[in-house]
């Protein structure tokens, strides 16, 4: 699934390294948009809390092990319209978009909160996301889960 998503985003499997080394690609734009639409990490945490997944989100921020989340839970928390919008930005089916988020949102949030706190402003979150994407894409290409 991830290889298919990357191929869809980049056009060719062998071009993934160029995307990973490049600037704002479709994946980075989509994730940035997701953060912005939800009020940054603070807003995402509120949505997850309202959706009954506050402890799960807190595990991603905290210093312990990240709890997993299902694609259906992502869609429940974010709403089907937001997942469809993300899928449209990425040019993939909504189920692939929610599956991608279920697999990688925990690691993304974890990397954006290295001190185990939600204390960054939106600009710092954006910079953190921009810094994170090349290594995330590199890990995806290598078949290794992000650490």
Fold and architecture overview:
This protein is mainly alpha-helical and about 150 residues long. Helix content is about 70%, strand content about 0%. The chain has 9 helices and no strands. The chain has helices at about 1-10, 15-20, 25-35, 40-50, 55-60, 70-80, 80-90, 95-110, 120-140. Helix 3 (about 25-35) packs antiparallel against helix 9 (about 120-140). The longest helix has 20 residues, at about 120-140. It starts with a helix and ends in a 6-residue tail after the last helix. Mean pLDDT is about 75; it is low at about 1-5 and about 10-25.
Structural class: mainly alpha
The sequence of SSEs as H and E is HHHHHHHHH
Taken as a percent bin, the fraction of beta residues is under 5%
Give a count of the beta strands, DSSP E runs of length 2 or more: 0
State mean pLDDT (0 to 100 scale). Answer: 77
Helical content band: over 70%
Individual helix count:
9
In terms of per-residue confidence, which ranges show pLDDT below 50 for 5 or more consecutive residues? Answer: 1-6, 8-23
- Euclidean distance between termini CA atoms: 19 Å
- The Cα radius of gyration reads 14 Å
Shape verdict: globular
Largest sheet: none
